[in-house]
Amino acid sequence: METPKEIFLKDYKLPDYYFETVYLKFVLGEESTIVSSEIVVVRRVEGSSAPLVLNGEDMKLVSIKVDGKELKADDYLLGPRHLTLVSPPSTKFTLEIVTDICPQKNTSLEGLYKSSGNFCTQCEAEGFRKITYYQDRPDIMAKYRVRIEADKSLYPVLLSNGNLLEEGDLEGGKHYALWEDPFQKPCYLFALVAGPLESRDDTFVTRSGRKVSLRIWTPAKDVPKTAHAMYSLKAAMKWDEDVFGLEYDLDLFNIVAVPDFNMGAMENKSLNIFNSRLVLASPETATDADYASILGVIGHEYFHNWTGNRVTCRDWFQLSLKEGLTVFRDQEFSSDLGSRPVKRIADVSKLRSYQFPQDAGPMAHPVRPHSYIKMDNFYTGKHCFVTLSRVLIHVYIQAYHCGLSFIVSSTLFKILSSRFNTFE
């Protein structure tokens, strides 16, 4: 086994290769799952002879091809954490990789796993490398198309990012769904869900007149408890239009709430996944604080659609930028829909109760550390409470990294500046 290496901020380098498009095919099975990837690869610097190094863990390599030709054993190096193409083509090429994984045995709940009868993914920060071999870093942005095949009786619902292009039945009691995300995204925002779920459906009409289909998916018994979550989602979509001028950019927005999800909530592009406790509420059991929490968390993950998804990180040392900016936005949202003084008192109380003890203990760390060994250990409270001034300084940089228009980034900057006194 390779020993995990310490990653230093000072060592950041631009990738030698970029990925333009990614086509993923999943054949979900009860013993194992076959994942086929087809990636269009381009060199960053023409004429470079650098090897292509891909991350990968806990999987079996079935085959690897370049432009349709099977690679020989001496064309690549395979280790427990990396797959390296020694001499990739000097021009644009297509890389095809087939892997065999076992989500049923994936108890880390990172990557693709199966629990409580559902297949589910969690790829932030570095879970995608447990699905297929890939450059698992946030500055690798690509457009994704995803085909999912599974037993229809066991997994009637097949979800991924973007818009649903087509679906249909296959032989042997199986069916498929084909999804396409037209926007570039890093692999940590990839999502897949398959299982026996039912949905609460609604629609939202954007300010430009587009109708967006909204669905909140849960086990059947929990659907009645999703009314407040749907209200919160629609409120967040309207608030982001009214306050930040940001309109939702796809035709469909899905939320999935499942009991076995260890990150609490995740902002995957157009397919947010939540732990059930952060979505479900009924008047018989939920308190006012529960309703307020659901409003804030639903809003937070939706707001990531722009501040985190369309405008993303260069590297994981910038985690505090996307999270700090989005926390500011969800705090403003909750304040506008509720009581600003009460919200501020609650936020300060949380800082005193959780952040202060953390900063006085062994988990203390700077907002932006100089190094890390395992990125998941950095997901503490501190990255959420970055000062707004630092966010303002870097908002243009973030906009550049995802190709966000100057007009939108300028609008964000002006609105944030006008509300800066809320952090004083």
TrEMBL record:
Q: Where is the Aminopeptidase N-like N-terminal domain?
A: 52-189
Q: Does the keyword Iron-sulfur apply?
A: no
* Domain Peptidase M1 membrane alanine aminopeptidase intervals: 230-380
Coiled-coil intervals? none
Ordered alphabetically, the record's keywords are:
Aminopeptidase, Hydrolase, Metal-binding, Metalloprotease, Protease, Zinc
Cofactor(s) in the UniProt record: Zn(2+)
Family designation = Belongs to the peptidase M1 family.
Name used for this protein in its record: Aminopeptidase N
